[in-house]
């Protein structure tokens, strides 16, 4: 495995038949697999073997899929390049010498390299969509609550969702059909409301509602964009790489040729989305990762000294730089005297972002942007300046703040490097996104 | 941190709160990086107060006995156990 796609290569066979019989799936290494080590890309969990399956893994097995390995990732999902993995960086099969994106870089690379037909990742601030864009494959970030997170090792749990990768939109949609649905073990899951339950205001929505009543996600991959209204947030094009922007507009022109129309929209709140996202994600991380004390699982700090000393030693040895950085900044943002200044303001910004998206989606069926404002970085290029790397998430994090679904679909290339187009829809509007995105891949 | 840069002492203090030991080199590096990142977070000051009426409902279930992990499975990843319990370090 020259590309370092998997942390652990081990086959887990599913049921003899089912909708995914004969299909292979790579599973991100922060999703628990009973009896197969699950490291989160961290030294902390180098030897951790979960005693139970995540709900999505049980569903894969029941659907007849064969899991082929646990895919490489940024440590605990914290990164945009998969280079923060304790187990080494993954090369990008679609652009050798470049990063595959992150944090689900191994999952996207597995599909791009043909090591697996499909893959699962998790998306806290773009961790499915970024690697999909960088590796030239399709990735879906579902609506918050559509997919169970039981057995997903938590990082920023008000933001994250497990999502599917495929070579085509239809492939990814088939995997979404298998993993979506409520789960009594994850109280944040919801049964997706049927479109026909909602009020419909125009002919297009009525037609869509009729189509959607019993349609699977895969059925929605018709490529029909006739009459589709696309809103393009101007803020998400500002400052983007020229080649990326050009490729984006070519893809929009392609959709126009098939009957879609577009208009520009403004989302002033997204100017604050990156800082709001990082304050919230780091705060949640500082709390979620407090469980790693080396007693019940993970790197042990030994038994010399008192528990504060041994826990601090376990965490010094077990966590890498980016994880320490986020835990410390999250602890700082929540500490006495700073909570109102950072965390509370970030929650205000989150509510503002939600309102902006609601308003924009009242005037458009979907919103479109480049998934990433830049093409894939060269390996090793970007790790020195964490803040610059955070800013690369500008187009993906607003979607997590607003709990909305989004899809990244290949839009073309710039200088031989893949460019992704992101479509954003209303809550539980996955079918609409799949229908539109399948016009491109 | 409102007016001036982050000090190494503040980084050490937060690391202690978070129970993460840092070596001197890490403290130096994080001190510079945190100054940049926190300065950027300050732009949240420009965010207007927003009406936040989250439409959330608690999800409850009856508190009934149900199957769970065996203690053997639950203890399998611990570095040390004793008499069917996790073994932790001294409390003080």
UniProtKB/TrEMBL annotation, chain B:
Biased composition (Basic and acidic residues): 59-75
The protein's name in its UniProt record: Aspartyl/glutamyl-tRNA(Asn/Gln) amidotransferase subunit C
Subunit annotation: Heterotrimer of A, B and C subunits.
NCBIfam families (UniProt xref): gatC
Origin organism lineage: Archaea, Methanobacteriati, Methanobacteriota, Stenosarchaea group, Halobacteria
Keyword Nucleotide-binding: yes
Record keywords, A-Z: ATP-binding, Ligase, Nucleotide-binding, Protein biosynthesis, Transferase
GO biological process: glutaminyl-tRNAGln biosynthesis via transamidation; regulation of translational fidelity; translation
Transmembrane region(s): none
Superkingdom of source: Archaea
Catalysed reaction equations from the record: L-aspartyl-tRNA(Asn) + L-glutamine + ATP + H2O = L-asparaginyl-tRNA(Asn) + L-glutamate + ADP + phosphate + 2 H(+); L-glutamyl-tRNA(Gln) + L-glutamine + ATP + H2O = L-glutaminyl-tRNA(Gln) + L-glutamate + ADP + phosphate + H(+)
Pfam families on file: GatC (PF02686)
E.C. number: 6.3.5.-
Enzyme class (EC, first level): ligase
């Amino acid at each position: 495995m020259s590309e370092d796609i998997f942390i652990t290569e081990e086959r887990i066979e599913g049921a003899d038949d089912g909708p995914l019989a004969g299909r292979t799936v790579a599973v991100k290494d922060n999703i628990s697999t009973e009896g197969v080590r699950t490291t989160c890309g961290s030294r902390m969990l180098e030897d951790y073997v979960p005693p139970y399956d995540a709900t999505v893994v049980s569903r894969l097995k029941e659907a007849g899929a064969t899991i082929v390995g646990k895919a490489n990732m940024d440590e605990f999902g914290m990164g945009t390049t998969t280079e923060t993995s304790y187990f080494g960086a993954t090369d990008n099969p679609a652009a050798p010498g470049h990063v595959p994106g992150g944090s689900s870089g191994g999952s996207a690379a597995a599909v791009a390299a043909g090591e697996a037909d499909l893959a699962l990742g998790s998306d806290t601030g773009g961790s499915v969509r970024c690697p999909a864009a960088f590796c030239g494959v399709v990735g879906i970030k579902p609506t918050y609550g559509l997919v169970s997170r039981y057995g997903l090792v938590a990082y920023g749990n008000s933001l994250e969702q497990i999502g599917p990768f495929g070579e085509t939109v239809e492939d990814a949609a088939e995997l979404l059909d298998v993993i979506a649905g409520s789960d009594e073990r994850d109280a944040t899951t919801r049964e997706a409301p049927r479109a026909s339950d909602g009020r419909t205001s125009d002919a297009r929505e009525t037609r869509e509602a009729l189509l959607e009543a019993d349609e699977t996600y895969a059925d929605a991959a018709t490529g029909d964009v006739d009459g589709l209204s696309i809103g393009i947030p101007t803020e998400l094009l500002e400052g983007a790489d020229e080649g990326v922007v050009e490729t984006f507009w070519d893809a929009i022109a392609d959709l126009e040729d098939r009957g879609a129309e577009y208009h520009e929209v403004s989302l002033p709140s997204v100017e604050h989305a990156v800082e709001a996202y990082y304050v919230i994600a780091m705060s949640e991380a500082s709390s979620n990762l407090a469980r790693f004390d080396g007693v019940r699982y993970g790197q042990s700090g030994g038994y010399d000294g008192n528990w504060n000393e041994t826990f601090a030693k376990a965490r010094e040895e077990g966590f890498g730089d980016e994880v320490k950085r986020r835990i410390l900044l999250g602890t700082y943002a929540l500490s006495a005297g700073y909570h109102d200044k950072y965390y509370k303001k970030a929650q205000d910004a989150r509510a503002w972002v939600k309102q902006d998206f609601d308003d924009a989606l009242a005037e458009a069926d979907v919103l479109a942007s480049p998934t990433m404002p830049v093409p894939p970085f060269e390996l090793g290029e970007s790790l020195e300046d964490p803040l610059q790397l955070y800013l690369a998430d500008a187009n993906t994090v607003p979607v997590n703040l607003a709990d909305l679904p989004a899809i990244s679909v290949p839009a073309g290339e710039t200088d031989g490097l893949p460019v992704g187009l992101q479509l954003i829809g209303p809550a539980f509007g996955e079918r609409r996104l799949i229908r539109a995105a399948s016009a491109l891949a | 941190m409102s007016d001036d840069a982050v000090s190494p002492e503040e980084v050490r203090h937060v690391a202690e709160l978070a129970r993460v030991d840092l070596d001197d080199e890490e403290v130096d590096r994080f001190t510079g990086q945190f100054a940049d990142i926190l300065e950027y977070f300050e732009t949240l000051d420009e965010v207007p107060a927003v009406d936040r009426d989250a439409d959330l409902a608690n999800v409850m279930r009856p508190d009934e006995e149900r199957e769970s992990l065996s203690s053997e499975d639950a203890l399998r990843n611990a570095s040390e156990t004793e008499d069917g319990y996790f073994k932790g370090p001294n409390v003080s």
